[in-house]
Amino acid sequence: MSLIKKIVRPEVLAQSSYYVPDSKNMVKLDAMENPYGLPESLRAALGAHLAQVALNRYPVPSYRTLKQKICQHFGVPSGFDVLLGNGSDELISMMSVACAKPGATVIAPIPTFVMYAISAQFAGMQFVGIPLRADLSLDLPALLAAIKQHRPALVFLANPNNPTGSWFAEEDLVQVIQAMSDCGLVVVDEAYQPFAPGTMMSRLPEFSNLVVMRTASKLGWAGLRLGYMSASGEILAEIDKVRPPYNINVLTAAAAEFLLDHLPLFDAQATQICEQRSELMAALSNLPSVHAFPSQANFVLIRVPNSEQIFNKLLEHKILVKNVGKMHDLLKDCLRVTVSTPDENRLFIDALKAALKQTD
Ligand SMILES: Cc1ncc(COP(=O)(O)O)c(C=O)c1O
User: Fold this and answer.
1) Is 272 exposed, middle or buried, given 0-12, 13-18 or 19+ CB atoms closer than 10 A?
2) 217 lines ligand 1 (CB under 6 A)
3) The ligand 1 atom nearest the CA atom of 31
4) Number of Cβ within a 10 Å radius of residue 341
5) Residue range 133-187, pLDDT digits in tens
6) Helix, strand, or coil here: 289?
7) Distance (Å, rounded) from C-alpha 357 to C-alpha 360?
């Protein structure tokens, strides 16, 4: 056995690296990115702004200006602050690392965002997944029973959920938060909030065990890698201790501060994407062999006759979606498709129609 295999933890050896497919020359509908780039004038102004950044200096460690802008623009309640992450991926990892007491458990409904289970495992926590119902809605009684049984330190609830697009009712989230009040924290992950009908952000003052997590990625800044989360000062202070120092680089901080002054542009893009989601759902409803699950996010989950074959046919048409058919039994023959521009959505629908014909 090689030295590295001897010293690396077995659960790490057993994992494969996070796989990202090559998307060169593809219509890229696999990662829930905003398809709209920055207008030319804004690019030039952003370039000039970034040219002023002192690359020879470490970031200001408090990130005070950026945090204040985030609180102001994203509805963080008065008296609450945020913690920043290099993407919300890093915040998820920080939550797990901080709470990984021996024997501690993380619970989440499944299928959901894979990083909850992976981060728990890497932190040495037990992960318990509670299956959604067949219609991909939340099985609240099963989740509450699991909380009673396992007394988890953390519950992650992605709302809307990835990869299903499901929206969990606020009353259900409140029941989970209350059931967790004497054992752990509930992280409501609102990564897709710009496309969703609600938020728990304004309810933070009511619940001392609630954490609301968001990302700037889906709004249009995936390349910046910026996530934020809000909770009581006591919670943020403890999680901050496991944050790598200077985790937000100066270019990301400066770009985000600049872009936050242009938020209406990105809000308008999110509105457009929601309109396109309705158009896409209407087009999908005309395809009898396809089932589209309701979505409150910037993607749609569809069930097709054979997801492997359709995925490969779409690739031949230069369309890249995500084949989630093998991720969980509930997702058998499912593909996840990002809602994009009218042109790209049309290319996808045309290619899907052709693929369905070819695999008849
Ligand atoms: C529910 C959910 N949370 C968090 C993330 C991570 O986002 P990022 O690391 O880009 O901030 C994703 C990414 O797809 C997601 O789907």
Assistant:
1) middle
2) yes
3) 14
4) 14
5) 999 999 999 999 999 999 999 999 999 999 999 999 999 999 999 999 999 999 9
6) coil
7) 5
